[in-house]
Design brief:
The complex is a heterodimer of chains A (about 425) and B (about 240). Helices cover about 55% and strands about 15% of the residues of chain A. Chain A has about 425 residues and is an alpha+beta fold. Chain A has two domains: about 180 residues, no CATH class; about 190 residues, no CATH class. Chain A is elongated. Helix content of chain B is about 30%, strand content about 25%. Chain B contains seven helices and ten strands. In chain B, the strands form two sheets. In chain B, strands 6-7-8-3-9-10 form a six-stranded mixed sheet, sandwiched between helices. In chain B, strands 2-1-4-5 form a four-stranded antiparallel sheet, covered by helices on one side. The longest helix of chain B is centred in the C-terminal third of the chain and has 16 residues. The radius of gyration of chain B is 17 Å and the shape is globular. The chains are: A alpha+beta (about 425), B alpha/beta (about 240). Chains A and B meet through helix 1, helix 10, helix 11 and helix 13 of A and helix 1, helix 2 and helix 3 of B. The complex binds adenosine-5'-diphosphate and magnesium ion.
Chain lengths: ~425, ~240
Amino acid sequence: MSGATMRIPRLRRKRRGPWRSKLRTVDMFATGTVGLRTRKARAAFTALGIAIGIASMVSVMGISASSRADLLAELDKLGTNLLQVRPGQTTFGDAAPLSADAPAMVRRVGPVQSATSLSQIKTTVQRNDAVDKDDQNGITTMGSEVNLPATLGATLASGRTHDEASVRLPTVVLGSVAAQRLGIDNVDDGPRILIGGEWFNVIGILDSLPLNPDIDRAALIGLESARDIFGVKALPSAIYVRTDPAQVEAVRGVLARTASPGSPNEVDVSRPSDALAARAEVDKNLQTLLLGLGGVALLVGGVGIANVMVISVLERQGEIGVRRALGATRSHIRNQFVVESTLLSLIGGVLGVAIGFGVTTVYARRQEWLVDLPMQGLVFGVAAALVIGAVAGLYPAVRAARLDPAVAVRPAA
Amino acid sequence: MSVNPVLELRDVVREYPGSPPVRAIDGVTLQISASELVAIVGPSGSGKSTLLNLIGTLDRPTSGTLLIDAVDTSELTDSALAGLRAARLGFVFQQFHLLGGMSAVDNVATGLLYRGDTKKSRRNRSVAALERVGLGHRLDHTPNKLSGGERQRVAIARALVGDPAIVLADEPTGNLDSRTSEEIVELLHGLHREGSTIVVITHDRELAARLPRQVTVRDGQIEDDERDPSNHDCTDHNGLIGATS
Ligand SMILES: Nc1ncnc2c1ncn2[C@@H]1O[C@H](COP(=O)(O)OP(=O)(O)O)[C@@H](O)[C@H]1O
Ligand SMILES: [Mg+2]
C-alpha cells in the first residue's frame, strides 16, 4: 500500500516559564473581603437572606429541643411506671365491666408497688340546690380509695385527702378542673356541694394530674360512702397501677390476664405517659415541616448570593482585568470570588445562629420551658452557610476567572 | 539598535473573528530596548490598544511571535503569563482602574500582591513608589478623595512598584485636562531619566512628538518608526536598569 501515514498534529506542550505568580494564603482571604468592605450595604442585605434561613432552622431546632427537654423533665417527674387498666368490650361490642375483686388481684402481682381503683357513680353534682341538676359541667363522681394520691403522685392545692375515717363520711376531694368549674378555689371556709342530692363537705382540692385528666374532672368520694349513702356497689371503671420501674413491660404483659382471668382480651391496658411522650413525636412532624420551610429559605438565600455575585462579577470586570494584569492567575480570581461569597454566607450564618438562639431563648422563657440551645444548631448553621456560600459562589467565580483580561481592562463601550 | 531587546514582536497578527474578520494588528515587527521611552501613536481604531494588550500578554497573537526577555510567550501557559506580568510588566490604564474604597498605598501594594511579597514589604515599597510620583502626602486617601491627576499618579506608582522591565500605558492622559496631562508627561519623562522602560499609547501627535521615539500605527500596521535626535539624550541610560528602586 502507500507509505503515507496520517500526520497527527502534535500539541505543543506549553511551558511554565521562568516567572511564577504567587498569592499568600492570608492574602487570598484578604482579597475575598475587598468586595464586602467596599459594598457594605449590599453585603448586609445579601447576608440577611441566609441569616433568615439559618435563623428559622436554628429556632425550630432550639424550640423543639427546649420543648422536648421540658417534656422529658416532666415525664421524669411523673414517672413512666404508671399503668392503667380499663374495662374493654366483649367480642360482640358490649361493655365488659371489670370485676370488683380485680384491684385486689392486680395488687398480688410481684412488681406492683401499689394499685388504686376508681369507680364511676352515675349521679349529679351541684354547687347548691339552686343550680340546675342537668348542668353537670362535665364533672364525674368517682368512688375512690385512700391510696389514690400516693399511687398517682397527686399533690394537694388545698385541704387534705381522704383518710380511713373521712373516706366513710360524706366528704369529697375535687380534681383541679372540677373545683374550678364549681367555683371553689380553697377549702378554708368549709365549702359544701350536693352530690346526688346529699350534702358533702369538700375537704381537699388536687393539683392537676397531667397523666390522669379524667381525675382532674372528678369529684372523689370514698367507695364506702358511695355504698353507704347511695347504696350502690360500683364496679371499677379504672385501676391505676404503679410498678417497679424496671418491670413495667413485664407487668404490662400480665395485667389483662390478672384483672380478668376469664377474658383478658376484654380489658384495655395502657400507659398514660405514652400519650405525653407521643406529643414529642407530634412535635417532630411539625419540626420537619418547619425545617423544610427553613431549608427553602436557605435555598432562596443561596440563590440570592449567586445572583448578587453574578452581578458583582459583571460590575467588577475592570477590577478583574486589572488584577489579571497585575499578575493574578485564573485560580487567584476564582478563589477571590469563592472566598467572598463564602464569607458573605458565613456572616449570614453566624448572624442566623445568633438570631435563632435569641428566638429560642425568648420563646422558651415565655413558655416557661427549660432553655436548650442545641450545639448541633450552631454546627449546622455554620456548616450550612459555608457550603451554601461556596456552592453559590462557584459559578460566578468561574465566570470571573474565565473573563478575557484584554476585554476586561477595556473601557465599557 | 540594542543587542538584547526587552521586547520583540515578529510579524505579529491579531485577527478578531467575525464576518468579515477584523485584522486589528496586521504583521507588526518591533523591538524595544531597556530604558526606552516609546510613544505608539495613531488615530482611533488603528489598533493601538490591541497592540498594547498583545505586548502586555493580556491577549495572544493570532500568529507571529512575541518575546519578552528573550522568552517566546506563545510557549507559556496562561498562569505562566500571569507570572510574567507579575514579575516583568506594569500597566497604566486610561480610566485608572483603581480599586475604590482602598487607600492609595493599598492600591499601589496590589501591584506586588501576586508576587507573594509580605504585607510589610508591600507597604514599604508602595510608600516609596508613591513618594516617587510625588504623592507622599496622599498615602491614606481613597481614590474618591483624589483628583484625576492624583489618581493617575497612584496608577503609575502601582505600575512601577514592582520594578517591571516595561511599563505599558494606554492613553494615560486621555481622561485628564491639559495641565494635568502635562504633569503626567513630565512624570513619565522623569521616570525614564531614572531608567524605566516605558511604552505610552496615545492618539495625541503633540504628546508623542515630545517622547524620544514615536512608532506610528495605521490600520494595524507600523507606518513609521522615528527616533528624535533632540530627545535622544536618554538612550545612554541603558545601564541604569534596576537602579529605579
Ligand atoms: N474584542 C474585539 N472584537 C472585535 N473587534 C475589535 C475588538 N477590539 C477591538 N476591535 C477592533 O479592532 C480595531 C482596533 O481597535 P483598538 O485596538 O481599540 O484601536 P485603538 O486603541 O487604536 O483605538 C478596531 O477596528 C476595533 O473595532
Ligand atoms: Mg485605544
